[in-house]
Amino acid sequence: MSKIIDGKLIAQNLKDRLKKEIIELNKKHNQVPGLAVIQVGNVAASSVYVKAKTKSALEVGIEVIDHHLDENISEKELIEIIKKLNNQDNVNGILVQLPLPNHINEQFILDTINPNKDADGFHPLNVGNLSISATNDENLLIPCTPYGCLHMLKSLDIDLKGKNAVVIGRSNIVGKPMAQLLLKESCTVTIAHSKTRDLPNICNKADILIAAVGKAEIVRGDWIKEGAIVIDVGINRIQLKVNGETKNKLVGDVNFDEGKLKASAITPVPGGVGPMTIACLLRNTTIAFKNNFK
Ligand code: NAD
Questions:
Q1: Cα separation of 284 and 117, whole Å?
Q2: Per residue in 155-172, pLDDT tens?
Q3: Which residue ranges have their beta carbon within 6 Å of ligand 1?
Q4: Which site in 34, 62, 126, 294 is 20 to 30 Å from 165, CA atoms measured?
Q5: Pure H helices in 198-255
Q6: What is the CA(174)–ligand 1 centre distance, in A?
């Protein structure tokens, strides 16, 4: 039977550590880290994420500077707001909740954020730093979801060196940075994607399997090597008929019931990667704050 990796608990431990650190930082600098949270429009999922991020930030003592903007705001106006935040002393991290409306070019917006205040780690400079740095350095601003996955792997207290890691998904937000992080932990990394041939067979060779696809339960039990560690990043809403009633359910990219019979450790959905993503956003904001005083 596999160990269920408790993302909520690991995230809470990280947040508790940050809370203590922020108290000490406040004593030293008479200032707490500030996070500007920008949401454009009212996409329901974005509102849920922004609310959760804001609540967690406040819990650890980070000041939140909220910018909930009209969905018709122009790209130029949004860029002006970000430029202002780039120069605002009480703002150490800037988070732009994605997706943005179609009339706004996401990459232009991410490029506008001061790389030192890049709470999500998506700016090209931070992407480059992640790629060229020799280690997963404590001072890097690293995309939150893959860093959260690495943090969970490390909580298992296993030697990652030389392990075969398979990452399914090649997005800039999850798959690519995940592969970079694992490479720096000296794993042998394979990145699989929508055009990969014979995916089950590739997954079968993985000591560590990271699924970041966005397809409900695509990874079946027989894709998983006996004893592998499985991190399920996917968040998929499916509908189930229970006693003739349609119910919504959140599932991952891995069939959890099958996966837990094969894996030595596996993350649940919900309660796995999700809480870690938020905790790592707070970590990035705190690091950005500390980097100011170097
Ligand atoms: P994305 O759509 O940008 O990327 C999906 C990737 O999966 C692509 O690289 C694509 O090549 C690959 N893919 C698609 N179909 C495939 C198939 N049949 N076989 C193999 N590969 C396939 O998505 P993303 O932003 O990387 O997110 C992936 C999933 O993770 C989504 O479900 C998303 O909701 C979830 N997510 C969760 C968190 C969290 O905090 N838990 C954070 C970010 C994303």
A1: 9
A2: 998 999 999 999 999 999
A3: 145, 168-171, 173-175, 192-194, 196, 199, 212-215, 233-236, 273-274, 277
A4: 126
A5: 199-203
A6: 7
